[in-house]
C-alpha cells in the first residue's frame, strides 16, 4: 500500500468506525426507550386504572418532542457516517485522494487525455438539439434578424 492508498482507505475506515459508533448509540437509545415504556412491576396499585393511564399519557406527552428530536439527530448521525464511509470507499476505488485529483479525472473524461474539446462533435450535438427542440440554429437566427439601417 502506498501513502496515497492508505490516505484514501483511512477515510473509509474512519467512516466505518463512525458508522459503527453511531449504530451502537442508536441501539442504546432504542433500548433505553423500550425500558422506559415497560410498566414497572413494583408500583403502587391503589390508583384506579384510568388515573394510571392518564398519568402515563401526560408523562409521555411531555417527552414526545424530545424523543422526536433525538430520533432526528440519530438518523442524521447515521446517514452522515454512512456517506463518509461511502465517500471514502469511492475515493479508494476511483483512486482519488484530493479535490484536484477529482477535477483532473473529470476533465480527462470530458475532454480527453489532452484536455482539448472536439469542436466537430459539439457542432453535431448542437445541430441535433436544435432539430429535436424545433428551434433554428444560431446562424439561421442571425440571418433572419433585420439589419439596422445606418444613417
Automatic annotation (TrEMBL):
Location, primary (coarse class): membrane
UniProt superkingdom: Eukaryota
Compartment annotation: Membrane
A single Gene Ontology CC term: mitochondrion
Keywords: Membrane, Transmembrane, Transmembrane helix
Transmembrane regions: 6-26, 71-94
UniProt key word Transmembrane helix: yes
InterPro entries: AIM11 (IPR038814)
Membrane topology: Multi-pass membrane protein
PANTHER family: ALTERED INHERITANCE OF MITOCHONDRIA PROTEIN 11
Family: Belongs to the AIM11 family.
Descriptive protein name: Altered inheritance of mitochondria protein 11
Organism name: Bombardia bombarda
Origin organism lineage: Eukaryota, Fungi, Dikarya, Ascomycota, Pezizomycotina
Amino acid at each position: 500500500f502506498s501513502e496515497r492508498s492508505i490516505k484514501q482507505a483511512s477515510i473509509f475506515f474512519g467512516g466505518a468506525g463512525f458508522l459503527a459508533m453511531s449504530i451502537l448509540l442508536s441501539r442504546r437509545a432504542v433500548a433505553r426507550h423500550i425500558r422506559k415504556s415497560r410498566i414497572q412491576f413494583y408500583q403502587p396499585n391503589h390508583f384506579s386504572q384510568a388515573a394510571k393511564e392518564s398519568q402515563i399519557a401526560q408523562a409521555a406527552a411531555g417527552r414526545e418532542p424530545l424523543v422526536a428530536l433525538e430520533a432526528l439527530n440519530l438518523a442524521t448521525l447515521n446517514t452522515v457516517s454512512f456517506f463518509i464511509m461511502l465517500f471514502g470507499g469511492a475515493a479508494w476505488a476511483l483512486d482519488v485522494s484530493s479535490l484536484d485529483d477529482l477535477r483532473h479525472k473529470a476533465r480527462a473524461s470530458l475532454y480527453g487525455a489532452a484536455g482539448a474539446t472536439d469542436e466537430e462533435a459539439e457542432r453535431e450535438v448542437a445541430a441535433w438539439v436544435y432539430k429535436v427542440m424545433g428551434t433554428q440554429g444560431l446562424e439561421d437566427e442571425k440571418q433572419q434578424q433585420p439589419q439596422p439601417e445606418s444613417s
